[in-house]
Amino acid sequence: MSERAVRVLFDEPGPRGRRRIRVLTVLIIMTIVAALVWAWTTLSATGELAWPKWKPFVQQWAVWFMLAGLKGTLIVALVASVVAFPLGALLAVGRSGRNAVVRWVCTAYIEIFRSVPTLLLVYTFLFALPGIGINLGIFGKLVVPITMINAAVIAELVRAGINALDSGQREAAYAVGMTGAQTMRLVIMPQAIRLVIPALVTQLVAIVKDSTLGYVVSYPELMKQANLLANNTKLLLQAFVVVSAIYVVINFCLTRLAMWLEIRLRRSPGGGRRSQLRAEEEVEHDLAAVVTPH
């Protein structure tokens, strides 16, 4: 997180506050270390760390079984992302536009689906909608709710980028004869998306994590496969440790991608100009108010 984001999200601590933070940091680290030592000791004593209980997960059949789940997770994340990102951009444009009806519809969609938990929407597609004749396949019952929720969040991320831009750029585009649509497509959106690319990449982490709801609709994604593997081998702890490690690797890679993009954008030509810095400060302020848990 950048220094500007820290200033946006948190008050700058004074000398006493910094001392408290250092003390709390040390206490938290000691607590975590103590918990890890306790867990290691307990698991060793009960035989959960013995190699025979981990050996099945390196055998070919188990590896292919988990890879099938990983494939399902990546497909869900890919399809949801391909639909949610353009849809979110369109919603952001609609909410920022001048047409009152379109703006009201986009605002209502964003505010509703930003507030609805993804699991609740999955249950709606699973139990409620089939009763009125809307019965999607298991893939649709998972992907459509994830897409709808994330499109609303992405819309607010993009809108934060639009609002961060200087109004003079829009006025200059009108002055040279551009229409409103041309101004948005050629001037506003490229710069707005450039500002929020790291946040958009980070949103992929949320989409990947939402894919774990596949177990609700019995879609064979990574979490569902891990659950089946645990039931078949009776090695519940080991199965979920393995799948947790896979999710950590995926999300770590996505987070590193977001950090790399942020650094690259800052080092790009013109990235040090005052207008760019001011725009980044404004967009980080907007993002702090936009991103809320599902």
How does this model look, in words?
- There is one protein chain.
- The protein is an all-alpha fold.
- The protein has 2 domains: 1-49; 57-290, MetI-like (MetI-like fold).
- Helix content is 81%, strand content 0%.
- The chain is built from 13 helices and no strands.
- The longest helix has 37 residues, at 60-96.
In short:
This protein folds into two domains: 1-49; 57-290, MetI-like fold (Orthogonal Bundle). It is 81% helix and 0% strand.
Spell out the blueprint of helices and strands.
Elements: H1 3-9, H2 15-45, H3 51-54, H4 60-96, H5 100-115, H6 118-128, H7 138-164, H8 167-175, H9 180-210, H10 214-217, H11 222-233, H12 236-267, H13 274-290
Helix pairs in contact: 1-13, 4-5, 4-7, 4-9, 4-11, 5-7, 6-7, 7-9, 7-13, 8-9, 9-12, 11-12
Main attributes of the structure:
single chain, 294 residues, mainly alpha, MetI-like fold, 2 domains, 13 helices, globular
Number of domain units? 2
The share of residues in helices is over 70%
* Class from helix and strand fractions: mainly alpha
Biggest beta-sheet profile = none
- Count all strands and give the number: 0
What is the count of helical runs?
13
The helix/strand order is: HHHHHHHHHHHHH
Instruction: Report mean pLDDT, rounded to a whole number.
Output: 80
Report the CATH superfamily of the largest domain. MetI-like
